[in-house]
Structures are given as C-alpha cells and as structure tokens.
Amino acid sequence: MTKKQLTKDPLNLIITGVGGQGNVMISLIIGNAFVRDGFFVTVGETYGASQRGGPVMSHMRISKNTQYSPFIPDGCADIILGMEPVETLRMLGKYGNPNVITIINPRPIYSIDVTGGHAQYPDLDGLVQTIKELSSQTWLINATEEAQKMGSHMFANAILIGALIGSGVLPLDKKSVEPVLRETFPKEIETNLVAFNKGIKLVKT
Amino acid sequence: MANIEIDAPGTSQLFIGNEAIARGALEAGIGFAAAYPGTPSSEILGSLAQVAKKMGIYAEWSINEMVAMEAAAGASYAGIRALAAMKQNGINVVSDFLSNLVMTGTGKGGLVLVCCDDPSAISSTNEQDTRPVAKWLDIPLVEPGDFQEAKDMTKWLFDLTEELGTICILRSVTRIAHARGNVKLGELPKKQHKAHFEQIHDLKHVMPTTFTPTPSPFRHFILHTKLDKARDKFESSSFNRYVGPDKPELLIITAGSCWLYSQDAIESLKLRDKVGILKLGTLWPLPEKFVTEHLNKSNKVLFVEEIDPFIERSVMELAANFSPDTKRPVFYGKRSGHINAYGELNPDMVIKAISTIFEMKYQPRDIDYGKKAESAAKSNVPERTMTFCAGCPHRATFWAIKNALKLDGRDGFVTGDIGCYTMALGPAGFFQVRTVHCMGGGAGVANGLGKLGQFGFDQPVIAVVGDSTFYHATIPALINGIYNQSKFILVILDNNATAMTGFQPHPGTGMTAMGEPTKAVSMEALCRSLGAHVEICDPFDLKNTTNTLLKMMSEDGGAKVAIMRRSCELVRAKKEKSPYKVHIDSEKCIGEACGCDRLCTRIFLCPGLVWDRKAGKSRIDEVICSGCGVCADICPQGAIVREAA
C-alpha cells in the first residue's frame, strides 16, 4: 500500500487530443503506474474514430476505495492534460469547473473542416488565454516543438507525461512511472526517458 | 495489449474488459477460441491469439462469425472448452446455427459465446441489444458489472455451460469491453488438453451419438429443463447483489456498466441512505425468487439499463404474476420516460432520472462558470469531421471513383459496406457512397440494381467492399451477380488488413491469428475462377485507376471485379519510412488566383494539407503528412512537390 494520498477521491483526470496523437498510450502508462501503487483506476476511452482525426478523450478515475465508472460526470474534472489546445477547451466546456488544473501542448492539429475552409481555428493566443481564464492553474508545455528538436514529434507524449508528473498534481512520482515507460517503449527507451525528463524540467521552469 | 498470461495470482492488473474476459477464459482452461474482429469485441481473440502458443491453446480469426461459432462448437463436441467472440452484428450472422445448437446441446467441453454490444453505435451501424436474443433462443445470459467480474464471470460460465450442457452467452458493452480497470488475477490451470469426439451416453445428451436438433419438440422440452436449472443456480449467484438501506425510498435495478453509473449517480446526489441498488449479473433466465424478495423493499423501482427495456419487461412480467393482494411498486424506466430506450447511458443521465423522481436540483459546478465555459467552447471549438488518415489508399480510390463516374456522365453511384471506407458517405470519400447496411450488403444491393436495365436503368453501379469484408460475406453476392448476369463493378479495397478493427489478418493475408504463415486465398484467383473479369489497380496511380474503372463501366456483361491494392498506411508506416518528402512550392502555388478553387485543401481533404489563410496558399503539415505523394498528382499548377525521402 502506498503512503501517497489523493487530493480528492475519486481524482478525475482527462487526457484529450486528436485521434492518432496517443492519448490511449498516455492513459495506459499513468493508469498502470497508479494500479501498481495500489489504487483503483478506471479509464474510459474514445474508441472507433481514434485513428481518424476525431476528438478523443480518456477519462481516468483514480480512487483508494472503489472502481468508479469510466465516465467523469459533467463539470467534475480535476485535471485536464490537453495534447491539443481546442480539444482542451472542448473538455473545459463540458467537464471544467473553477478548480480545474490544465496542462496543455499548444500545437494545433487542424481538422478537415478547418483545412477545407468550412470552419475556422481560433487565434492561438486568445485560445490559450481563454483556457487560462477557465482554469485554476495552467501549464503551457511546447511538447511537439521540443519533440521535433529531438528528432520526432512522437516524443511529445513522453514530454507531456513528464510534465504531468513534474507538476505534482498527481500522487505519482518519477519512480512509479519510469518502470512502466521502460515496458511500454522497450526499443526507444533512452530517448523517451530524455523526453520524459525534459517534460519534468519544462513544467518546473 | 496487456500481458494476459502473466502468472502472478493475487496481483492487480489494469485490463480492458476484453482482456479480462480473455484472462478469465485462460483461467477456465479453454483450449479453443475463434472470432471475427468487430469493435468493441476484437481484443478478446486478439489477446488470446497473442499468448496461444505459449499457453498451448488454439486461437483463430475465422472468416466470419458463423464459422467461428461453428468451429467452437466442434471443439466443444470433442471435449475442449471453447469460446467464440463477436460484436452485436455477429449475433445475426450466427443466429441460424445458434437456433439449432440450443436444441443439439453442447459437447463435454463448455461452450461460451461472448458478445460485445455497442450502445450508441460508437463503432457500429446499429445498437442492437443481444439480451432479447437470449430470451428468444433460450440461452442463459450473464453480464459483468465491472472488470473484475468480466474475468470471474467468464471463468465461472465455463463451469455452468458444462453443467447445463448448453451454450451460455456473456454479454458485455463498450464501456466494459473497452474501458480499463483493476483485475485481480487468479490461478492459471496447468492441464493438458485431450480432444476426442466421444460417443456420449447420459441423460443430458438424449440422442448420444448425434448432435442434431431433432426430434425438435422433445429437445425443446429438454432445453427448458436446462433453463430451469440455470435459473435455480442464478438464485444464489454472488453476481447478483443488493447494496443499500433496508427500506430504500427508491430501489434501482440495474446491470453491467449501468451499475457503475448508478453508483456514481447516488454518490453525486448524496442519496446513499435513501437509494438502494439491486445489481443483477445473471439476466436470463431471471432469478425470480431473488428479485421478488428485493422488489418488496421499496414502493418505487427505477430500471437503469441501456437500449431495450429487457430487465424492466422481465420484472414487470414477474410482477404481473404476483397474487392479487400483493402490493406492487411504481415502476420507473423506459416506459415512464425516465430512461431513454436508445443510446448509451452515463452517470449524468442516471442523476437526471433520480433527481426527477426525488424532485431535487443537482448543480455540479458554479452556474456562471458553466455558462462561460460552454459559450467559450461553442464559439471557439471547430468541428472535427472524421476522415481517412493521411496517406490512406481509400482517399485515392474514391478520388478515382468520383472522377470515373463524372467522366462516364450517367449519374453512377456507389453502394457501400462496413469498414473504414464507410466514411466515404461523407467528405472523406467525396460523398460517393449512397447505401450502407451490413457486411456484404452493398454487393447484395448492387445485384438488384444491376438487373434493372429492362426498366430503363443505365446508371453505373459500383459496390465497394474491404478485403476482409469480401471474404466474410461478399462471395455469395458476387457469385449471384455472375450467375444472374447483374451489371455492377465490385471494387475490393485490398489494404491487406482488417484495418478498422486493428489490422487483424484475414484469409488473403497469408498469416494466421497466431502469427504462423499460411496459404493465402488469392482474391483475384478466386474471382477469376468464378468467371469474373478482374482488374488490379494501384489506387495511388490515379490516372490508370480512373481509366480502368471508366472502361469497365462501358462494358457489357455481369458482375466485374476491380481490386484496389495498396497496404493500409498505418500498417505500412510501422514497417518502413515514408516514400516521399512532400512540400509546397510557394512560388508555384498561386492560391485563390488559381482556377482550382483550393482543390487540394478544400476537396481532396487530406489532413496533411492545410490552407494557410494569412499566406493565401496551401502548405503541408509535416506532423500529419505521411509522404504518400498522391496530392502531387492532383495539383493543376504542379505546386505540390514530392521528393524521394
């Protein structure tokens, strides 16, 4: 059993982005780390459209006591990890509340409605400002940009996991997450660990 | 997928419901598993196949659900515990066999059908409910309420099916099948499987040496005795339980994931001391004594279940048989309008139903915050219409189909089928698909359309079907089209995988579920042997594909076949690097001044192509672009440049 305490039970975490970005993978890593630390974890995923550019979200409910449902009730998110900015705002509209904490990667992914000219993507600065106004605390993590510097945008996920852990909003530390990362990325573990540590550093600066 | 064969009894793992079911089957000592992929059921067989060799079991992706079920029954007859898994549509495919299987009974090996339903049809064309099938065909049916139960129930169900001598169904839904939760592992058996078709002689199998449904009335009577026995077992099952006050003001009767929503709802409403939950795990036959005992606890009963009012009607039927002087509670549910009879439920919908009954207000967040957040999301968040992945061969195929039909000029159209390419109903496939029903349905519909020439019909008809769907259900429709000389083109989108459900192999891939190389069934050899005119195209060669289709449309004769051969981009990208590096020559792209009216970003709609409003030109999103290079062939200015990567 762990000595680490949840700030709230259940703790409701949303991981959101666009299909193909890897939200299922992030939720698996965080979820497994919690289960190994003795928590009950329920994760609800958006499936089906997940590879096809649709909005995706993982609802994670973490508890010491029981198995919660895979849906966070409306207005009841505690933390939102946004892999994409407008998707973060979509989640705030439904699940946000004055206490919600947001960690966002501000790199937009345009939908075909935007690229085709049928819809407009909002001005990024204004969008980030709105997210900040709707959150009790916001961290901006340029995960895609930092990952590209490392050679591939694919490392953005490990950076975001690092940011989530480094922010201290979850009762999980580096030691709980690292072994899960090693099992998930056996081939590219060294680069992913560099990315993970970069995320921890970015959130603290 | 998780490591379901981990030999660590007592430890907790994070499993999706499907992995929990697969683990339960392993703990039950199954020897045989067969399935056809279908969301949300695919990971059951997928995870079993991954460990099959190590565990000494057999697992296969069957050509369709019917063969999967029949094959599993064969294993049961030879004394091997067997499982068949499918999504709700699969039940329709197997129902003919099932309706006879219930009469013949199972063999010495237990036989379990796992069906994952998809309320709200998140990854389906319909939201059919499997539970009434159990009642219709006299099959015991159970449903797990969480991930632990998914494992434990599967294991227990194998004992039950063997004891009863009849097939049992484990029904699950998307929010258990595809959600993740804690599963505490049990022991894995260390037994060797020994298969032998025995000449059984006992009371359970009345006609011992033959598994046949006749004489039907007698076998039907025997089946009913099996159901009575199942009901007796269910009366004391620990999968049915009541939690709540002794005399609740409201009694919720629920099952499956709705049990989790009901618990969330009464916690959110802080009504734990007023509302009790009767959670059922064994749904058919209904454990009547157990339910009656709890029904007397409260004056008000709310049924919380998705899709059909299955439990609601079963309990009402039970209450109708109460003696006239018995007090009956007021029933709330689908009939009263408190719970929808369509779409999936969630905690908020249950909160709404309960707060309506209690006439109470529920306010989860500050009202002003809520208004501000909702309005900010509404005015800033653009739609994300589903589309094919960047580099998907289907986009190129539908581009060629669209142009060929336009050039032909006779108002031709496409009948569709089930797979990623169903998205061609929308902008992803340029709105080309006009009909979608079930697996193989598009080719069947085309058969009828192609025979309407005598009534003046001369529109070209193209039936599109994926490679896996071709093997699953399209071959009889193609034979019919050749035999009856129906005029249509069957376009097989051969991307060498069952892509939509997770790239499972199929008879054309030359690979089995357990990763063994096997003899591939060549679709072109098969079609040619039937006498069809067959053409094979690379859809990335837009010009040749368009011309081939155009030529085929102008030819007389019965059903023809055009195979569009190009690997799924997601499969290709895992194996090799991108073929091209694509960029826009900003000198050549003249934006709005070009007569193309933004052909690449507005019409072709690959998510890797972005219209840069500020610059008034197209550009490539390097994070999304897969480097297929097809767009270079559609730009009239030659502004899209592909260079070998």
Tell me what the structure shows.
The complex is a heterodimer of chains A (205) and B (645). In chain A, helix 1 crosses helix 7 and helix 2 packs parallel to helix 4. The model of chain A has no long low-confidence stretch (mean pLDDT 93). Chain A starts with 10 loop residues before the first strand and ends with a helix. Chain A is α/β, with parallel strands linked by helices. Chain A has eight helices and six strands, in the order βαβββαβααβαααα. Chain A is globular and about 50 Å long. In chain A, 41% of the residues lie in helices and 17% in strands. With 645 residues, chain B is α/β, with parallel strands linked by helices. In chain B, 36% of the residues lie in helices and 17% in strands. Chain B has 20 helices and 24 strands. In chain B, the strands form six sheets. A seven-stranded mixed sheet of chain B has the order 3-2-4-5-7-6-12, sandwiched between helices. In chain B, strands 16-15-17-18-20-19 form a six-stranded parallel sheet, sandwiched between helices. The radius of gyration of chain B is 28 Å and the shape is globular. Chain B starts with 11 loop residues before the first strand and ends with a strand.
Largest interface: A-B, 63 and 65 residues
Helix/sheet category of chain B: alpha/beta
Overall number of strands of chain A: 6
Structural class of chain A: alpha/beta
- Strand content of chain B is 15-25%
Q: Gap between N and C termini of chain A, in Å?
A: 32 Å
Largest sheet of chain A: 6 strands, mixed
**Sequence of strands across the biggest β-sheet of chain B:** 3-2-4-5-7-6-12
Uncertain segments of chain B of ≥5 residues (pLDDT<50)?
none
Strand content of chain A: 15-25%
How does the overall form of chain B come out from the CA principal axes? globular
- Mean pLDDT across the residues of chain B is 95
- Report strand order across the widest sheet of chain A: 2-3-1-4-5-6
Task: List low-confidence stretches of chain A.
Answer: none
Kindly state the percentage of residues in helix of chain A. 40-55%
Mean pLDDT of chain A: 93
